[in-house]
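Lab notebook page, bench 4
Experiment: in silico fold of construct C2
Operator: M.H.
Input chain length: 750 residues
Purpose: comparison with the prior construct
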Amino acid sequence: MLFRSEATTSQIQKMDRRTFLKATGITTSGLVLGLQWACSPDKPNIPFSPNVYLTINSDGSVVIIAHRQEMGTGIRTGLPLVLADELEADWSRVSLQQAVGDEKKYGNQNTDGSFSIRMFFEPMRKAGASARMMLEQAAAQKWGIDAGDCKAQNHEVVSKSGKKIGFGELTEIASKLEVPAEDKIVLKNKADWKYIGKKTNLYDTPDIVKGTAVYGIDVVKPGMKYAVILRCPVAGGKPASYSDAEALKVAGVVKIFEMKASGFPAGFDAPQGGIVVVADTTWAAITARKALEVEWDYGVNLDYDSEEYILDLVTKTKKKGDARRTNGSVDDAFKKADHILESTFITQHLSHAPMEPPNATALFVDGKLEMWAPVQSPQWIRDSVAANLELDAANVTINVTLLGGAFGRKSKPDFAVEAALIAKEMPGTPVKVTWTREDDLTHDFYHACGVQQIRVAFDKENTVTAWNHRSAFPPIGGTTNTKEIFPSTGELGLGAVDFPYNIPNVSIEAIEAPAKTRIGWLRSVSNIQHAFAVGSMVDEIATQRGVDPVKNLLELLGPDRSIPFNEYIPGFENYGEPIDTFPWNTARLRGVIELVAEKSGWGKPLPKGQGMGICAHRSFLTYVACVIHVTVDDAGKITVEEAHYAVDCGQVVNRNSVINQFEGGFIFSLSGALKGSISFKDGASMQTNFDKYGVARMADAPKILQVHLVESDEKPTGVGEPPVPPVAPALANAIFAATGKRYREMPIKI
């Protein structure tokens, strides 16, 4: 399962100051509310443990404990902003405190899968509204008037007669009042929102600009030592023997020892093991690591050659696979076809390559472990550390720092477990484990390489009658279990089985592809390969039909409707949400196609060597269409002139965050489309740094990049991952429009 649907039934309670202080360490003399939503449905008997703490102090300051992790998405701003809006708080008087990793206190803290806003939008509104109503009631009590005659406005309560009183002056009375029952909570009208749907700068921006923001790599503790690890270049390998004689001669080296290897597959919780070097400085540790002499037992993946592996997948996709969606009779349609179009699309492994590589600082004292780290899933990290150190989770504290990029990499616990194991070897001494860029690129949980084979049948009128898609890539499940050799239903639900076009005969098949290295989720996951194939093939259909690509898209979509994928796809996950709550609505996809065509000037005359391409895709419940305008010169150089997104993510919380995510997402996607590729030879990654693993630079960025947001009252959805899928196919389609040549492999090489 890639996704887990979480209940959001909320409960709001006042907390006494002693309980609050014990839980948070914040001293207050004001109103304290704890908000709980049921994020652990498998643990129904957990007593009231608030997921969010809201404090209004007697001086009027507001403190919100942020239980989600900030990695550039703006979530540490977005959710508190929702609460502050309903509270009628002055945003300049709101401060945030980052929660430690503790599922019992804060519920699900996994900041992954673009689900934070959609899961917590309503509960945060209710928390803010509850506090607002209590402050209004407190003012009414103080003035001896009806609560209906009081209204909170910009950090004050105002009476109909014009009296005003600040929030801070009301906290003592409010703290003695009952919290409104959930069915009595009155939410603000959309027309009265001050922050939701508007542009707000990120809370952390001033600290980032000033250089005072603390990322994991910035953590320094008194007496701290620094560690790096020499890992086997092949996943699952281990040291057969080693000599540290020369390494120990390096000044500053404190300790060298072997960390037990976990074999293959090891899962996400266990480190790869290897030779640990601890020193007074990171540089000393790296220098000593280079001096180690190691004989490796390379294990079961020494024969992994990704080029040969992909060629094998190409062969496998020529045959029928395991059918995961069947509508109509594809075989009959192809037998009757007047014309058949067949194409194969190839994608290479990708690395997360965040700006800040994995790192963690740990201190082990008296059977307790404290850690400071940039992690996406602190409760998973906490549980994994506890299990590997054979500790009770109550004796593990995970302090979450800002994350310098993540893209899914920092949700995996392996690097944090490494730090914990090393700290246990050196009790009383804080130790920071640092991954170099070389470590990052050669020991990642990679995005899967893969092959997508698509066949399309046409009748005499050039109407599409059948669609057959065979998807082959090593599944994420293969990282934990060698028996997992087919893409899961969840992975295929990311752009393959949820094929939305109105074609009567459809077959989507999974092809066997065992994992030969560590595979993990990367920003938008298998939407990357599926959107590239489907979005490109739909454009090929337009060419075959002799129809404009935008007109072709709209015609293939057919009538506006909600598609009941759950009725004919067993286990269809819909990103962890009920499909009746978040239906697959073709009208919304049509809307973004029409909007992006309008805003991009689709159809305008272009000079020779220029072209425009389009792709539309739904991922993480968000509908996105992308148009890219390119110039390709005689030497094959690609210049992206313009890029336009149209985005329907339901109700927008912070317009700045959405636009930022799509601007950054475009550059991230452009890297994968034009440059990114991890290849394996003799089981090892051939790309060890940015000299061989390309990322987009300023010169690659489009001259114009615009994000057009659909105004919507629909439930909010995710925006972290949806920018990624449509970029590569839109780019490939634009290159075809400019050159007349199809490119069906990522990265695109002309």
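Observations: The radius of gyration is 27 Å. The chain is about 25% helix and 25% strand.
Next step: discuss at group meeting.
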